[in-house]
Structure formats: C-alpha cells, structure tokens
Amino acid sequence: MSEWKGKRALITGASYGIGEAFARRLAADGAHLIITARSRERLEALAGELRERHKVSVSVITADLVQPTAPEEIFKETERLGLQVDLLVNNAGFGAVGEFARLSLQRQLEMIQLNVTALVMLSHLYLQPMLKRRSGAIIQVASTAAFQAVPYFAIYAATKAFVLSFSEALWAECREHGVRVLGLCPGPTETHFQEVAGTARRRPPNMQTAEEVVEVALRALASGRSHVISGFSNRLQKQLQRFVPRDVITRVAARIFRPFASEGY
Predict the structure, then answer these.
(1) Which residues contact 258 (CB under 8 A, 6 or more apart)?
(2) Which of 34, 62, 70, 79 has its CB 3.0 to 4.6 Å from that of 40, i.e. a possible disulfide?
C-alpha cells in the first residue's frame, strides 16, 4: 500500500510532463490531489479523468506562478477550502536557450521568478504547517543542469543549482522534525519542456519518460534521501565530472548548447 493513500498532494505545473506524471501516479496510489497550472482546460480534463478512474478528490487551482502574488493566492485558496497538503511537489518551471545578453531580460527574470522565487514561497508557506504537524514532504524538481554551469542555458542552470542547494539545506533542517525534502534531478525527459526551451530539434540520447522520473523520485523520497539523479547515464556523468576541471566541463557544455543559440531559437 502506498504511503500516500488517503493523503493529499499539491502539484505545480501539473498540466504537462513530469507534473502530470506525478498527478497520475499519486492518484493511482489513492492520493487526493490539488493540481495547479495556467491551463484550466487541461487541468479540468485531467482532474475529471483521475476522479473517474481512481475515485480520489482532485481540486483544480488555476494560477500563473510567474505572477508574484500567485503562491500566496494558492496557499490562501487551499486554506479556504480546508485542504491539508501532505506532499508538495514544486515542479513548475521553464528554460530558454540562447546567449544571455541577447535573450529577453524580461523572459529571463520570469524564469527566475518561476523556477526560484515561487518555489521558495510555496515551500515556506506549506512547510510551516508540516513542521507543526511533524509530518509531510516536499519534492523540488531541479535538474542535472544543477551540477555545472551551462553556457547558452545560463539562467536555467543557475536556477536549478539554487533549487538543489536549497533542497539539500531544507532536508538537513527538517529531517529531525518529521518532514522530508528531496531535490529531484532529472536529465532530458520526454515532455514539452524542449519545445518551450528551444531544444526540441535535437533529441538528446537516453531520454527518460516522465513516468520513469516520477518512480525514481518517489522511491528516493521514501528512503529519506536529500537528492536523487534520475537515470543511470546521468548519475554516471555526474560522477565522472568530479575528475574533470570545472572550466573544461563548462567549455564542453558550451559546445553542446551553442548550436541551439546559433539556430535562432
């Protein structure tokens, strides 16, 4: 029996990709859900399907986490509805490929707002009641990009480095109080992330499915780990990086991502 049966999970960015896969997996385990994203139509369709298939409660909250007030609005709505959040999955995020100086500054600031600021706000809002109850868990979706600088993907990689460091710090702060925190680091995953980021034309090798990433995350959370890298090749790559100077790794990353920038994405 899943530990989440009868519990309630809040999932951001639940209309696509890893967020949707979390929603489907947790609902199949008997968890009640709060799903949030910008697209009400997609959320309502997913909610209806999961209610019918798994006989669980699914609440829909439409929100754009690029807006600074959105995290507080989500929290107030769950409080108004009397919904206790036992598991927070901070999944919402996006990337944009290109030269930092040439990309829209506004778009990059929105990336920081979504990938970092909204995640921090939601973590702070929902962590406090978890600590009072001495139970609960948070999954923060970082990336394998968190482990090195990525030229032409500079802001995205930097935000994910923040998410990983932040998650590991919370893991240490909260573990004595009955609350688990996990930093999830997937590599290339079969979602619509690539279309948004501008990397869809070149399919990376060893892509995982969103469902595989979710399975890795839930197993790691259950075992109390501070972070997990999804995928054997991604874990191997991370280990090999320990033996290579950081400037060499950065130059290699630049060669990989420069073509995306030069193709006019």
Answers:
(1) 151, 152
(2) 62
∠250-256-257 over CA atoms, to 5°? 90
- The radius of gyration of the chain's CA atoms, rounded to the nearest angstrom, is 18
- Whether the CB-CB separation of 46 and 35 falls below 8 Å is answered with yes
Burial class (CB in 10 A: 0-12, 13-18, 19+), 184: buried
Distances (CA, A) of 227 to 64, 114, 121, 124, 210: 27, 21, 20, 19, 17
Residue 51 phi, psi (nearest 5): -60, -45
**Catalytic position from the list 16, 126, 152, 156:** 156
Q: Are strands 179-186 and 136-141 parallel, antiparallel or unpaired?
A: parallel
Is residue 156 flagged as an active site residue? yes
pLDDT above 80 (res 142): yes
Q: Would you give the DSSP letter of residue 4?
A: T
Give the CA angle between residues 93, 68, 26 to the nearest 5°: 45
pLDDT tier, 240 (very low <50, low <70, confident <90, very high otherwise): confident
CA distance 78 to 106: 30
> Which tokens sit at 198?
């501008």
Which pLDDT belongs to residue 197? 46
**Tens of pLDDT, residues 150-199:** 999 999 999 999 999 999 999 999 999 999 999 999 999 887 655 554 55
